[in-house]
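dude i think i finally got it to work??
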Amino acid sequence: MAQSSWELELPRPEFPPSRPSVYVIEDEQDISRLIAHNLTTAGFDVSVFGSAVSVVARAQQQPPSVFLVDIMLPGPSGLELCKEIRTSRALQNIPVIFLTARNDEIDRIRGFEVGADDYLAKPFSPRELVARVRAVLRPSVPSHTSVMQFADLEIDPESMTVRVRGNTVFTTVREFRILEFLANHSGRVFTRDQILNAVCEEALFITPRSVDVYVRRLREKIEDDPRLPRYIKTLRGFGYRFDSPRR
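look at this
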């Protein structure tokens, strides 16, 4: 099959120049047009690509506010594109939502493992589509406005930045919100469902098992030894607790 690399030209309605932008990577043009119509009507600036081929190069010149990526694409898959986005210094902080007909839990887990922030399964309603995009762009509402310091770990709610021993560590939007939530309630134990309800209210396809993936990825980024975590502790059969180790 020939690899598709088309880009859909869309009308640009008159909205304020600061409106958020969405890159839609979807090879079925009817679905692309439907997505573009609904997002444009909702006030987003939309660019549509038929494959992953030119997306990163274009995004590095003009970064979007969010990527909406179909997993099954001609050529490089959506999973491969997400990996490339997450390894790009200029793009790694931009939210990625997977859009796909796949609805098995294992496929959702794979998406979260490569760094996705959310997952939208086809068929979807226009209202749900817009809500998901807005959800990953909505800043969290922290109970602390100043930088939180725990031994060698710093969490800055205002800039959504995590530092370990002074070095900035990349986290996805969902990872940051989970870390921030647990740190804001240091010492308290939360079930996976409680964590989901607190930080992922709009993400219907994020399951309790997905929380385990997020926690594992966070430990790999903030812990000296992820197998013996100092910060995010597991209480088997119940959930997770954030501890504040001494300096």
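Residues 13-17 have pLDDT under 50 and may be disordered.
im so relieved honestly
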